[in-house]
Amino acid sequence: MSLFKKISPRSLLQWVRTNQDFLIINLVLVLKVVFFSLSVGMGVGTFGMVMASAAVLLTLSCGFTCLPFRARTLLLLLFDAVVSVVLLADLLFFRFFHSVISIPVLFEAGQVEGVSSSVVNLFQKWDFLLFIDLVILLPYFIRLVRLQPQPASRVGKRLVQVAAILVICVLSLSVTSRTMAANFGKNAYIGLNWNNTVLENMGILNFHLFDLYNYWKESHANQSLEKDKPALEEWMQKHRQQGPNRFYGLAKGKNLIIVQMEALQGFVAGSSINGQEITPNLNKLMKSSMSFDNYFTQIGEGNTSDAEFMGLNSLYPAPNGSVYIMRSGNAYQSLPWVMKNYGFAGAYVFHGNTPQFWNRDKMYPQEGFDKFYNLQDGLKLDDKLGMGLSDESFFRQVASNLTQFKQPFLAFTITLSAHYPYVLPQDKQGLNIPKGQYSEMFVNYLQSQHYADQALGEFVAALKAQGLLDNSVLVVYGDHFGTGWTNQDIQKFLGLNQPLNDYTSHELNKVPLLIHLPGGKGAGVNHVTGGQIDFYPTMVNLFGLDKKNLFYFGRDLLNESDGFAAFRVYAPDGSFATNGVFYLASKDGIFGHGAAYDRKTGQKADLKLVKEGYKEARWQVNMSDLILDTNGLPQLIPKMH
Ligand code: GP9
Ligand code: MN
């Protein structure tokens, strides 16, 4: 009773006055959380989200109010600065990856240096609002510290106040999380990288706390493959029986030259702008190749490295972060190992950047490459462009190295010049595109693809001149989609009469794949649905390799009729495509909340049609994670390389 007696309007006012630094900082931070939510297109956020964000901020900062006035004000400002930096980092990351930063991604912080030019481009003009309060508040708080008679109240009393704040905050957080669990079930708290239930209902700061907790729990869990091993073995047994073995061994004895093209998205292949072909060399090569027009990129946050990883291993990318960075210590039965087991003389990889980028220097030996040609070893930076060596010089140097290798060899080459933000010097811009037709970013993208294609053309000509084209399988594919342009750009370029929606934008995430055999053997367009995970088994069949000692999730595209491509990160886990349907899983992890589409008509389809595919997609990505988390391949493959 005596406590309530003391809470009079006057005493409350007094409390507000003596704690104005604490209240102002937290109010401003709540507004910043709302700013973040608005900036990433989630609106101002629900009432619950705002309350939960306020609760977590107050919880984290209320302890400061027990300190002497000067120290607490300073710490509160520091708290503001730290939270603002976190929000800015989340915002920039979101603009690039369409998701917020999770713990595994922090392992990749080193990559930021390499993409610093990209990061600069991610800033937008209103971002300064995240820090403007610090500039305004600093002089105000200095005045406050000077004026404040201290101590404002006894330490004991201040501790009671802190305890009261904590009780209120914990109560409000538990109400929000209980409501959320009641609405979404236990799904709400799993797969936070693709599942935005926590993000939308409790805000970005609570998201980080849950993510931290999940990470801690996972790293302390004793995961084992034991329980799932029989199911995986049985599944693989069946999976190996796939197809009538069309084209089996057609490429036996040939070299394999793989070109992974940076940001080569499907829609540029075969298209023109103002009467000029964007990729004339690719288009020409396509005519004498097996080409695939329904081949999806399946990358996660590991971008280029994920495309490499899937092609070489037929496992899925990690739910967040990059396998190349987080699992470079694992044992793999990668394509280079497999090909060398069957008589290849050597396997080489080329990339015109520093070897540390995406941890390639650690990962390539694990994948069985004998040598990595990079800017510190084997390649000369004689023509710098963007992040590293220009594609033209790169291919010139690759071509001259290839003639030195004992055959048959595997050469894996990764281009770089068409990397975001696609800036090329004037003399390398080969397309004539008048200003004002498209956004600058889109024009630059087309120019850089055109440039990369020219370099590819020169490479193919060199291979021909060296006699290698007649003795090799040449594969060209795109690593992933490009980013940074507007929806209007793409709508106009493709002549669509409607803006892209959630589903149609996923349909655009296809990349070209072409497989060129000597003499154009087997050439033609194949419409089967597939993705980068299918590359490995397709090569295994084409080169006539034994599948007995292999474990792979993909399918041999030359012997596949239905097609199946599962997605993650850019579409929630469980999303997949077949020739007939596309299932876009819901971000809350509930099957019934997702949507199925008929890929021929683009219309919504019955969810019954996709239930099995959804289960299969979830199972495959979960099993792939388990294999990677437990370094489990040696248990599934008795005789590794
Ligand atoms: C860097 C390059 C990066 O070496 O491969 O490409 P990204 O993953 O940013 O597309
Ligand atoms: Mn890339």
Word description of this protein:
Helices cover 47% and strands 10% of the residues. The mean pLDDT is 92. The chain contains 24 helices and 19 strands. The longest helix is centred in the first third of the chain and has 30 residues, at 155-184. A hairpin with a 3-residue loop joins strand 16 and strand 17. It has an eight-stranded mixed β-sheet with strand order 7-6-10-1-11-12-4-13, sandwiched between helices. Helix 5 packs antiparallel against helix 9 (129-147). By secondary structure, the protein is α/β, with parallel strands linked by helices. The chain has two domains: 2-219, no CATH class; 248-561, Alkaline Phosphatase, subunit A (3-Layer(aba) Sandwich), CATH 3.40.720.10. The chain binds (2R)-2,3-dihydroxypropyl phosphate and manganese (II) ion. Residues 115, 303-304, 351, 353, 357, 387, 416, 419 line the site of (2R)-2,3-dihydroxypropyl phosphate.
What is the topology?
Blueprint lengths: L1 H5 L2 H10 L1 H20 L7 H15 L7 H29 L5 H4 L4 H4 L1 H7 L6 H19 L7 H30 L12 H24 L8 H11 L15 E7 L10 E2 L2 E2 L2 H8 L2 E3 L2 E2 L6 H11 L9 H4 L8 H7 L4 E6 L8 H8 L3 E3 L10 E2 L2 E2 L1 H12 L6 E6 L25 H26 L6 E7 L8 H8 L7 H6 L5 E4 L7 E3 L3 E2 L3 H8 L22 E2 L9 E2 L3 E4 L10 E4 L5 E2 L5 H19 L3 H4 L5
Parallel strand pairs: 1-10, 1-11, 4-13, 5-14, 6-7, 6-10
Antiparallel strand pairs: 2-3, 4-12, 8-9, 11-12, 15-16, 16-17, 17-18, 18-19
Helix pairs in contact: 3-4, 3-5, 3-9, 4-10, 4-11, 5-9, 10-11, 18-19
Bound molecules: (2R)-2,3-dihydroxypropyl phosphate and manganese (II) ion.
The site of (2R)-2,3-dihydroxypropyl phosphate has 9 residues, from helix 14.
